[in-house]
Amino acid sequence: MQKKFNITDFLIDRNLHKNFGDHISIYYKNQKITYSELARAINRRGSALKELNLHTNERVLLILNDAPDFVISFLAILKIGCFAILTSTFLKKGEYNSIIKSYLPKIVIVDEYNFSKVKRLKNEHPAVTWLITGKQKSGFKSLLKIEAKQSDELASANTTNGSKAFCLFTSGTSGKPKSVWHSHRDLAFCYDGYAKTIFRINPQDRTFSASKLFFAYGLQHNLALPFYTGAAAILFPGKPTPLNILKIINKYKPTLFFAVPTIYKRLLCYKQRKQHNLCRKISRLKSVRLYISAGEYLPPSLFFLWKKELGSEIIDGIGCTESLSDFMINNPGRAIAGSCGFLVKGYQAKLMDGKFKLVSVGKIGDLFLKGGSIGSFYSDGEGRLRNIIKKGWFKTGDKLSKTKNGYFLFHGRSDYMMKVDGLWVSPLEIEEELSSCPDVLESAVVPEKSKDNFIRPKAFIVLRKKHKNIKALIRRLKDHLKKRLPSYKLLGKIAFVESLPRTSTGKLLRNKLCIFKKG
Fold it and tell me: Is the same domain home to 335 and 242?
């Protein structure tokens, strides 16, 4: 029989037992919320949800910006043994409607920022209880009003390590987003092998993530990670533009900053254009002791440029929605450009070829992963569940190789790696060489079938400025690559675009560009 384990006890009550009740847990606008205040707010909200006849294992859908209400709602749902469905605030009415039809939540919680997107859905789902975190509006009951009469005390439900707790949606970079179901243990798994040993997080730290809490990257690093040790999370509901990020860092002084590589690149470009007087401060962000990256490949050129401009390395790692956390990461002070680092304690990995045989050192293989934070199920949006782990291992969909020194190199997603003339080609290698061309701002390479039915790399390129003689530019770009790459890695076609399709967090949506698809 499994012992009782509730993630809210681990993240919140444990800090109270360590006498961290007066420590700041959340910085938000002009608010400073202590752990004691946060615990009482979670208890009141949990009691309010129970008063609305929410029972164990029933589902609550959240449409909330990064704010205290997200943290309070999420942890209150888990504390009373219910299931939280975390959704992006960037979806449209029809997408929310599809999720409600597929996942059948008993309650939907929305904030005032997102109320207008879903207010008309209420009549389409009369069985759902609709709540708003602010004042009552158009039939949406006010959580504030219900909470006002609730007790500050609430016992956690009798959940276990394996009790289902919440689901997150993948970013959709390789196709239609699907939800990943996680248990209570998953958020706690990386405390020993990740938070303590890699980041050495302590109660004086402050975290800030450009990725939002409804993404695994934001949830792990800007909620679970600081709450592990009584540190503070800095929450920001707006868009992670360079100016907004600089303002947040300047005001709240985070010590750990988390972002995808695109955000780091935008910050450097912003500095170079000197668009705001805060740009002078980007070269002396003294409060930040660690810059951490994941979510997509960090090019070596960006690693070295950031180090040159700021004097600090970017700690790159690799994780996914299924693992919730990074399962490989570089060690601070010893980061290796172009590497996703070493295996995090508690995880096992193996690289396999197409015949499910282990590949030798230096060879590219499919990554199979084991670890206690890996989710249990996928949902395809039609109500069906399928296991994530098969025969004990989770196939991540990533192509990696391992060096003789034991660190891993990321070569791309399996969907977009291509075999040209019988040899593996990583789009990332071609993109890295294109980035060294002064005409190129950014690029994305995908496989495409040529007229003779062979696979060739095709590049979509965003230029730094307009060019009149495009033919001459194409010749110059191809000559640039010929000097640096073998013939089978050279481009077939080049297309120039105004911008590349990306998610709200800046991750490249390569599938939007990929004309040829395997299988």
Answer: yes
